Amino acid sequence: MGKWASEQASKDAESPQVVEGVDEKELSLSDESSKDFVDTQLLDKAEGVAIQVISTRDDPELSVLTFRVLFLGVGLSAFSAVLSTIYTFKPQNATVSQLFCLIIAYVMGTAMAALPRHGAWRFINPGPFNIKEHTVIVIMASTASSVAVAMEVIAALDLFYDLRLNSAVAVFSIFATQMLGYGMAGMLRTLLVYPTYAFYPAYISVVNLLQSLHFDGSLNLKRRRFFWIVFAGIFFWEWIPQYAFPLLTAISVVCMVDNGRHDFVRNLFGAGSSNEGIGLLSFSTSWTLITQGTPLIWPLQTQINSFIGMGLGYIVLTAAYYSNVFNGRDIPFMSTSLFGADGQTYNQSAVIDSNYRVNQEALDTIGLPRYTTTYAISQLCYNLSLGSAFTYIVIWHWPELKTAFGGLRFLKSGHADIDDPHYKEMQKYPEVPQWVYAFLFFASLAVGIGCSYAGPHGTVLIPAWSIIFFTILSALIAVVLGFITATTGFNLATKYAIQIIAAFLHPGQPIPVMYANLFGNSTSFQTLLLLQDLKLGQYTKVPPRMTFAAQMAGSIIGSIFNYAMMKIIVNNNRAVLQDPIGTRVWSGWIIQQYNSASVAMGAFGKDLFSIGKPSGYWIIPFAMFIGLFLPIPFWIVWKLARPGSRLASAMKYVNVPIITLYIGWLPYSVNGQWWSCFVIGIFSQWWLRTRHPVWFVKYNYLLSAALDGGSQVILFILSFAVFGASGKAVEFPTWWGNPANVSVDRCKLTPG
User: Fold this and answer.
1) In 453-527, where do the E strands start and end?
2) In this predicted structure, what is the pLDDT of residue 10?
């Protein structure tokens, strides 16, 4: 275990060793040959799955741009954009996975391939539905399904400021902030796409399923059968915990014994409803929730570090609340909303005037807002994580950074000299020139600046100089976040840090702070999305220019449908979305974060976050600087320890950014799934991977794909059929497993 941990943590960029006499392509179990051969030495490294599980096979003659691609790509982009927008307003932190898009595309693509091929039909059906067509459709749909931060900010303006942007301005704002990130991504391909160490763990299951569905061979027939059996099983199961028997989404023995009588039990063990509790010893049988922890996909190192952080979080969050840290003992344990001195929801409309600035007289009467203790701790931990990420990347991954950026190598066009088998297969295809990415970047920046000056009644949403500043900052952040995501599958949050910086640049102005998040956080997030899809294209051998075009198309379609569906949901559920707690069906907790930050940081930033102020919130922004030093002690011990010793391996195994982030991970949404994630993650990434590597390589990522796909399909059906996405919710009859006057896990009394 110690040796495995050391090798996994190193994640060096060297070419993996293969067994002498075995052809490189035979290392993949997607091929007919070498069906039971597994290079366990290669599999020991986290990035080894990219070589062991994924085939390097390519057929340059396969069609890429067909009528099927356009028809299904546009249709599924619109569909997934609508579904992801619905999820944004759900209490669960659910997303539309690429696996969901992949499955729908496969069913429809193979159906179209069954049409006649003679005469004019050949335009519609040029031949068998191939892996490259399939990948392009998936990239388009998954791009559209990624809800833009701009849409969430626009929703916050509507819900909490009664400020409604012109539809054209809104859509162009969404599109421009996405395109800025894509321009940045082009400059980072040498560092974060081409090498083996940049393997993006979450994408292994996507590629594994694509190759299983399209490559021939008896092994793949068995794997396809396995996939559809699991898919059907979870499809017919998932409606039970999600609708008929919701107790199964958060099974807590402690809560069932207490039955909602004690607040302490609810806060620590509750997990069944939005903002109920942090879910200690709560287990879930709903894969819709469990998949949020990606237990079958994330490398063991990532999962272990997240569990360590979460374990510390149970202690820190509970102790802080009951010790009255940040003076939050008299307000709810969990909420992302702001509260006043009276313990009620903060009356922001009274202190923000018609020009969206602070009304000092009203502020003197009402007082400053307050965060819940757990939300303040969470922001502090997120900033610790971000600060530590910069140091962590420099001290542990300096050779990779030096290789990529030395001599401004990342600015050069053409193919890089990188020893990766997948990348070598791609060198037959022309790359997108760097000037295209540069043009996209500057054009999007201009559009973004123009939209910021087109607010209602001549309102300037954010000045041009601020947009430029935060865009540059976002580019720097993208390098750090991209490296962590590429090697661990883990995404860090930057929005709190960006909002705090904006609060000091735009004091007393809540809306510019909210918009700074678009250009300082959203752009780096979109950078990661394009980098990941470029890697997906590299794995499946889609020409880079086609991958780029698919991303652009998906972004345009997604921008339009994100905005349209958001307006429908906000208009139909305004009161629930404004409520600080929400319901089991609808919740505005994601949107409320932007509003809370804009008011607390934008309107009152200096009063709340400066040193010496009564709130004590000054430590939240200062945590970024503290975080810079947190990885250093572990690195020093590693340097002093004997090479190869258990102590050295342990120090290199510790990922400080992940641990610190997960200390503050829990005070949001529902938390019934994390102990199930722990059990499944250990079973998959340790027991199966080390004790049954052949089964792991053949079926583990396929299992994840099937579970994600089946659960997302049924959740989509339930959202429109009974959860109210179509305008009217249909409640399941009350019974023991679906109680009326207590939360589903029996930990919180509810009105009724």
Assistant:
1) none
2) 38
* Residues contacting 53, CB < 8 A, separation 6+: 28, 29, 30, 204, 208, 697, 701
Nearest by Cα to 660 from 328, 377, 394: 377
The one-letter amino acid code at 298 reads: W
What are the structure tokens assigned to 406, written together? Answer: 């030395």
CA distance 381 to 492: 11
Neighbours of 31 (CB within 10 A): 20
Is there a contact between 143 and 555 (Cβ–Cβ < 8 Å)? yes
pLDDT at 546: 94
pLDDT in tens, 25-75: 333 444 444 445 565 555 556 566 777 778 888 889 898 999 999 999 999
Q: For the whole model, what pTM was predicted?
A: 0.78
90-102 burial, b for 16+ CB within 10 Å, e for fewer? bbbbbbbbbbbbb
Residue 65 per-residue DSSP state: S
Backbone phi, psi, residue 454, to 5°: -120, 35
pLDDT at 46: 59
Rounded Cα–Cα distance for residues 328 and 347 (Å): 17
Helices and strands counted in the chain (H then E):
37, 0
Least confident of 452-466, 522-536, 600-614: 600-614
Q: Tell me which DSSP letter residue 291 carries.
A: G
pLDDT at 493 > cutoff 80: no
Q: What is the mean pLDDT of residues 297-310?
A: 91
For the segment 519-555, what is each residue's pLDDT rounded down to a tens digit? 887 778 788 888 889 999 999 999 999 999 999 899 8
The yes-or-no verdict on residue 15 having pLDDT over 50 is no
Q: What is the dihedral of CA 550, 551, 552, 555, to 10 degrees?
A: 120
Instruction: For residues 446 and 455, give the distance between their C-alpha atoms in angstroms, rounded to a whole number.
Output: 16
Q: Average pLDDT of the chain?
A: 83
Beta carbons within 8 Å of 614's beta carbon, 6+ residues apart: none
Q: How far is CA 691 from CA 47, 99, 481, 646, in A?
A: 18, 27, 33, 21
**672 and 271 Cβ atoms separated by less than 8 Å:** yes
Tokens of 86: 């619905």
Is residue 143 within 8 A of residue 175, CB to CB? The reply is no
Hey, what long-range contacts does 683-689 have (CB within 8 A, 24 or more apart)? 684/295, 684/296, 685/295, 685/296, 685/298, 685/299, 685/300, 685/303, 686/300, 689/43, 689/300
Alpha helices, DSSP H only, in 323-456?
A: 348-351, 360-366, 373-405, 421-426, 434-452
> Among positive and negative, which fits the CA dihedral 592, 598, 601, 607?
negative
Rounded Cα–Cα distance for residues 644 and 610 (Å): 46
DSSP string of 105-169?
HHHHHHHHHTS--STTHHHH--SS--HHHHHHHHHHHHHHHS--HHHHHHHHHHHHH-----HHH
Q: Find, among 367, 269, 318, 376, the residue nearest to 597 by Cα.
A: 376
Give me 211's structure tokens: 């190759």
Phi, psi torsion values for 723, nearest 5 degrees: -90, 0
- Round to whole Å and give the CA distance between 209 and 212: 5
Q: Give percent of the chain with pLDDT exceeding 70.
A: 88
Q: Which of 39-53, 335-349, 410-424 has the highest mean pLDDT?
A: 335-349
Q: What's 748's DSSP letter?
A: S
Contacts of 524 (CB under 8 A, 6+ apart): 181, 184, 474, 475, 477, 478, 481, 494
Burial (Cβ within 10 Å: 0-12, 13-18, ≥19) of residue 501: buried
Question: For residue range 93-115, what is the model confidence (pLDDT) as tens digits?
Answer: 667 777 778 888 988 898 899 89
Residues 6+ apart with CB under 8 A from 12: 197
Q: How much of the chain, in percent, has pLDDT values that exceed 90?
A: 27
Question: What was the pLDDT predicted at 287?
Answer: 93
